[in-house]
Structure formats: C-alpha cells, structure tokens
Sequence to fold (255 residues):
Amino acid sequence: MFHVVIPARFAATRLPGKPLLRIEGKSLLQWVWESARDSGAISVIVATDDVRIQTAARAFGADCELTSTACESGTDRVAEVVRRRGFADSDLVVNLQGDEPFTPPTLVHDLANVLMNNPTAEIATVIAPIGSLQEFLDPNIVKALCARDGRALYFSRAPVPWPRDHLQNGSPMSFTGAWRHIGIYGYRVASLLKFSSWLPTALEKTEKLEQLRALENGMLVHLLALVASPPAGVDTLEDLQRVREFVAKRSLARI
Fold:
C-alpha cells in the first residue's frame, strides 16, 4: 500500500498558473490527479501553497492540503503533508509532480513496488535510456549512473558516463549506456522526513539537483529502469501546446 502526494505550485517562473491551465476541458492538475488515482494508491493528496489551486482541486474531487509558502521545493511540500497527516515511518509515499499529466498509473504503482521489494532502499526513482546525442549533451536533461544492483551512483547535468574512446574534437559522439533521470520519487516516510530535515549539500548546490543530498548523506537510492521515457511534462508554453495537440489527436483517433 502507498500514498501519492502531488505538489502543485501556482507561481511557476516559466509558466505562471501552470497547474490550472486547460487541456481538453480539464486542468493540467486534474490530468495528473486522475493518473495518480488510477495507480492503486490508498490516498492521493494535492499539496499546494495557493488557494486558487486548492479551490480547483477540491472542485474536481481531490483531497488537498494548503501548505506553507516557506516550502522551497516540492519535496518539502510532500514532507509537510506527511507530517500533518501523521503517516507512519514505514509508510510509502510517491511524489508525483503536478506538471506530469501523462505519467502512466502503472509507473506510479511500479515505483512503490520497488520500495516494497527492496527493503534496504530508502528512496526510489526512475531512469530511462538516453535517446539521442542531443539529449546526452543537454544540461537540462539529468543523467544518472546506475550500479549493477540498481543503486544510484550519481546524478549529473554533465554527459556521463564520458565516452573517452568516442570523441571528436573533444566532444562525445556516443551515448551508449547513458540513462536520463525521470523526476518521480518514492520514499519511505522516515527517509523523506530525514531528507527534508537536512541542509543542501555541496554537490547538490553545484549541480542544482536535490537528489544528490540523499547520496551525499549515504542514503540508498534505487533506480527503476524503463525501456523508454514516459511522455514529457509541461514546463513551457511550447510544452503545453505540444500536450494539447497530443490529446486532441488521441481524442480524434478514438472517434
């Protein structure tokens, strides 16, 4: 059994009001909530610092907590909800971002199962194969290094592993064996509360990747490897248009 918490912030820098933007008659947030609801979670809670999102979430039937405006990240918002609801230390919670409308419900379920099946793992997250050299070189696409037993070794914005024998003029020409990180997390509640109590670490501040805080503090992070990336989320107006076109085409195909 597991819970899902969906952090949703109104004041997104690149796309303000993002959770409430409409896609085929439903808000972006409702698409995410419906995916989480269909995952088999025993509860799905929206966590937001904005009453407009709270009102909209409750209107389509979601359980919603109004969290502190002092939360610096979605993880902090999830931790606040976990504390407020009194979840047990052994409970499992999945942090599903409020801008990922087409995360498959099966992926949410499978991520929780990673923790159920790996009792020493404290956090679980998702990786998928890098699909192109452009992705490999893009610092906005986070790369993950994975041990043979599924443990996360490192996360970086840099192109890793570095293909030393496949360079041209000093630049990589191969991305064989490279993985990209998909930003959905599963936590044991005790691990989440420890993580959120720690100050940002040196590597985290350098790479601007909060999952490095867990590795620097010795947490075991297990990686769920997919065969392909799930549909991309919404960060920009261009992303929103792409998603709207995808849904429209899918609706036409069903007619």
In short: The first strand starts at residue 3 and ends at 8. The radius of gyration is 18 Å.
